[in-house]
Specification:
By secondary structure, this protein is mainly alpha-helical. Helices cover about 75% and strands about 0% of the residues. Helix 4 runs parallel beside helix 6 (about 95-105), helix 5 (about 75-85) runs antiparallel to helix 6 (about 95-105) and helix 6 runs antiparallel to helix 7 (about 110-120).
């Protein structure tokens, strides 16, 4: 259901489970991040807000809630959610990337850059972290950082997930080329098949 855009039907089993176990923070977090992943941002917000009430200092929940608020066009609330969580030192790289995007959206360029730098410095970067970091860097015109965001990301066992990661990174390379940034020939050549796939996907979306 989720893959077909039927968010309410796809999330209904989660909703029923949360009603039966309202204190299960892991369940609420899983439901919220599933909704976020599939673009059901309003549903994600409601569920992650519930999870945040159960675990107000959990860094992963705070990050997912902030990402959802940013996607809903509420950057001030995104910043507020992360400012509370930032008292901890174990925020994932995606948290600082979301903070950078939200700060840029409210016109605070200095904070946006500082948060982007913190995101770049965080260890243990995963694919989702890299995607948000690449997005934050490209929003600021930091094309080299945008392309490099996926370096050192562990390979995914899921072929579809791996393909999606390559397409996101390829999109970053394409934006860098459009901005006339000089990239290594190896970077460009290694992603020529992905550039073609990205072009085919764009053409399919427009059809």
């Amino acid at each position: 259901y989720m893959a077909n855009g039927e968010a309410s039907r796809g999330l209904n089993p989660y909703a029923l489970a949360i009603q039966a176990s309202p204190a299960d923070v892991t369940l609420a977090y899983e439901a919220g991040t599933t909704a976020l992943h599939f673009g059901a941002f309003q549903e994600a917000h409601e569920t992650l807000r519930h999870a945040a009430r159960l675990a107000p200092h959990d860094p992963e929940i705070a990050t997912a809630l902030a990402q959802t608020l940013y996607q809903l066009g509420r950057p001030q609330e995104c910043l507020a959610a992360l400012n509370v969580a930032a008292r901890r030192e174990d925020l994932p790289p995606a948290a600082y990337a979301a903070h950078s995007l939200a700060a840029a959206a409210v016109g605070d360029g200095a904070v946006a850059r500082a948060s982007l730098e913190r995101s770049l410095q965080r260890p243990g970067r995963g694919a989702e972290d890299a995607a948000w970091l690449s997005r934050a860097a490209s929003e600021r015109g930091e094309w080299s950082e945008s392309v490099a965001a996926f370096e050192h990301v562990p390979p995914k066992d899921d072929p579809q997930a791996a393909a999606n990661i390559r397409l996101i990174r390829t999109a970053a390379i394409l934006r860098a080329l459009e901005a006339h940034v000089v990239l290594s020939q190896a970077d460009v050549r290694s992603h020529l098949p992905d550039l073609a796939a990205l072009s085919d996907r764009a053409a399919s979306d427009l059809a």
